Structures are given as structure tokens and as C-alpha cells.
From TrEMBL:
Record GO biological process: phenylalanyl-tRNA aminoacylation
Cofactor, how bound (note): Binds 2 magnesium ions per tetramer.
Designated gene of the protein: pheS
EC number, UniProt record: 6.1.1.20
Keywords for the protein's UniProt record, in alphabetical order: Aminoacyl-tRNA synthetase, ATP-binding, Cytoplasm, Ligase, Magnesium, Metal-binding, Nucleotide-binding, Protein biosynthesis
Protein name stated in the entry: Phenylalanine--tRNA ligase alpha subunit
An MF annotation (GO) of this entry: ATP binding
Subunit and partners: Tetramer of two alpha and two beta subunits.
Source species, domain of life: Bacteria
Magnesium recorded as keyword: yes
NCBIfam families tied to this protein: pheS
Amino acid sequence: MKEQLEAIRQEALNEIDKATDLKALQDIKVAYLGKKGSLTSVLRGMGSLPKEERPAVGEMANSVREAITNEITKKTDALEKAALEEKLEQEAIDVTLPGRPVQVGGPHLLTSIIEEIEDLFIGMGFEVREGPEVETDYFNFEALNLPKGHPARDMQDSFYLTNELLLRTHTSPVQARTMQQYGGSRSVKMICPGKVYRRDTDDATHSHQFTQIEGLFVDKHVRMSDLKGILDKFAKSMFGNDRKIRLRPSFFPFTEPSVEMDISCKVCQGDGCSVCKQSGWIEILGAGMVHPNVLEMAGYDSETYSGFAFGMGPDRIAMLKYGIDDIRNFYTNDKRFLGQYHHVKGGTL
């Protein structure tokens, strides 16, 4: 039986040495050490041995089992290490190769325009205020001299959520809220950028959602000439120092008197072309002196305080400044279009 055990040892060690993968090693372990393995079969025959031989044979059997087990463990470690090294070699990264460029986004053109306008007015002492996009009928209309039934409400066809709540049609409610917050006791110098909503058919120049920036300056002895100076500085900053402005009489319920502001056409220098419809001028924004009723409703004494307000559309300003002919380009998220303006600085009409 000792000869059988030695033969099993040598045979098992030879097969372990020849094994090339972990599955082969597992098969060898089962073949020699399993319940039906060669070594187990030999050990079952120990009962037929004389008692005096059994200890020596048992000791040798344990030695054979230990030798086979140790060799399988060593071979397993070697195969696993080799497999890991092969995998690492296959997945090796050449750190000397140049990196792949990462696509970096940039600010939306409208965001850039709004920030440019904010910087300009902050430099003139204005603060930036924000307000809710879901607004009450009172602040959207009534506090701005547009009582229920006023015909001018039809100029701003609205998205009503309830009888008293709607999506704001302009950012003027922020002005009304700020004046009421100040309680008629201090001056107001602010702009309020944000999204506004109107029931409109989307086309190249109209959208049901667009951006707006409105400004307000209320204090003692504020005059129309102050408004003209502010607007002239705005036009020259946004469109170039050679821009001229003109103010035309107009009507807005919350200002009196009211004006429309035009800027001279960059394309034709005021001579008339298709861009300005042969007029030499392009309409850019509306403005005027704050109506006394608006001041009084906000708690201001209209005999002591006066002010001006203006409203402009960053969408329209961007279209004029960069020659964009379709407002829908701002909202369709086409990266081919938006990517052209990630690094735009300044620019003229």
C-alpha cells in the first residue's frame, strides 16, 4: 500500500505541474482528494492491513494528502498571479499618450446678454431684483394701473392658472413689489431680469416664453432727461459708441408720458435699408415716467417722488446685436447654433 501511495503522490504532482488553468487544478483535486478520488480509495482499504502497519500507512497517507494540497495551493497562486499580470498587460494604459480633449460648455447667449446688461446697470448704481414667475393678478396688472376690465390688458394675452393667479406677462410686478416693500419711504434704483409668458403664436420673432429686463428709478426730482441719459449710455455700451437714439411718444398704462426708444441702424448708418425697413431706425425698448397712480398705490407721495421705468427684451437685443433672424434658435437647444456664442465678448449691431 505504501507503494500505491507513493505512486499517487508522484502522479498527482506531475499532473499539477502540467496544469495550465484553474479548472484543470480543480479537476485534479477532485480526482485525487475527492470522495471518490484515488487517495480516498486507497485509505478505504486500510482496514484490511495488520494493526501494526496501520499507523505507518496512515501517517504516509496524510503526508501524501498534505503534499498534494500544498502543491495545488502553490499552483493556484501561480496561475492566478499569471492571469492577473496578463490582464494588467492587456489593460495597460499608456500615460504618455496625449489626453482626449474634453468638450467644455459655455454660457447661453441670452445668459451672456443678461449678465452684460446687469453689469452695465450695476455700474450705474442699480441693484438686481427677482420675483415669482407665477404672479397674482394684483401685482401683474392692478398695481401697475391696469384694473380689471382695462382694455390695455388685451395687449398682454395671459396664461391664467386661477382667477387670481397667472404666469407673469412682464417683470414689472417685481417693481411694484419692491416699491411696496420700501413703503414709499426710500428711493428705488433697480433692474429685474427674468422669464415672462404670453399667449402668442411661436414664429421667427415671437415666442410664448421669452426674457425681459425692466428697470426702475424712483426718487425726488427724477426727470425725463435722466431717463434719456441712462438709455443713451445703455445703447452705446451694447451697440457701439456711434449709436444714436431717439425717443418717440407712445402709450403704456404704467408710465406717463411714455416713449419708445429707437437706435440708429448700424447697417445703413441711418440712410435706410431692409433691416430698418428704410427708416434708418430700429425699435429697441419702451420706457417712460412712472404714472402717479402706480406711485400712490405703492405708498409713494407722487407730489414728492417721481421716477422712470423702462423695459427691454434680451432676446431682441441679442438678435439685433449678433444678426440672428429667428428667436426660436434661443430655445431649441441646438448646440451647433449655441456653440457659436460661447466665447462672444462685446460685438456690435
